[in-house]
Amino acid sequence: MLKLFSLLLGIICFSRASWAQSAEDIAKIEDYLNNIKTLQASFVQTASNGNTTEGKLYIAKPDKIRMEYDKPVDVLIVGDGHFIVYNDRELDQVTHIDYDDIPASLILANDIKIDGKNLKVVDFYKDSGTTEAVLEYPGKSDIGPITLIFNNNPFELKQWKIVDPQGIEVAVSLYNAATDVALDAGLFRFKSSQSPLSRKKR
Question: Rounded to the nearest 5 degrees, what angle is found at the Cα of 47, between the Cα atoms of 12 and 63?
Answer without folding.
Answer: 75
